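The protein record passed on below.

***
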Amino acid sequence: MSGLIGKKIGMTSIFSAEGKNLPCTILKMGPCTITQVKSVQSDGYDALQLGFEDSKENNVSKPARGHFAKAGTTPKKKLVEFRNFTKKYSLGDTITVEHFEEGEFVDISANSKGKGFQGVVKRHGFAGVGDASHGQHNRMRSPGSIGAASDPSRVFKGMKMAGQMGNQKVKVLNLKVLKIIPDKHLMIVKGAVPGHNNTYVIIRK
């Protein structure tokens, strides 16, 4: 679906017309520059490649510099492809936050906050084993048994165990656009968005 690249600024809350206090997230959406136009004839499908946020030329390879120069734009830090734009765009055009409307619903994806190596209580919500009594002193947050011994003589794939938590791509569906501030390229959506502040977000209609 069509969309834009942006950044998560942070969370706040606003009051609705009915007087309800709504938790919401502020996003800086665009402006995004079209760095490549793909078509069925040349690439097998229709899509637009959008670039967001200027990058230093020294941080970009020579082939990438030529790619951006062809579009007549400065090097960009983030590139993402989008499909199904109803309006026709050309190479080098800019798409702003006004591509979206207040009141519509969007899907937002981003990398979640990384939490490092975590145990089963934090990672999977296990209750822990036993009570803190009868001399038991070091098994409160352990996972307990992970399988039988002689049969099946192995641990099944997908067993919930301790390990790396977070820092994965997460998509949140059907977030309502509460407000759009075009002159500052800001969008306010209801609810929470994955990731820490200043993380890149991809928003789709």
User: Anything to note?
Assistant: Residues 121 and 141 are 6 Å apart (CA to CA). The first strand starts at residue 3 and ends at 15.
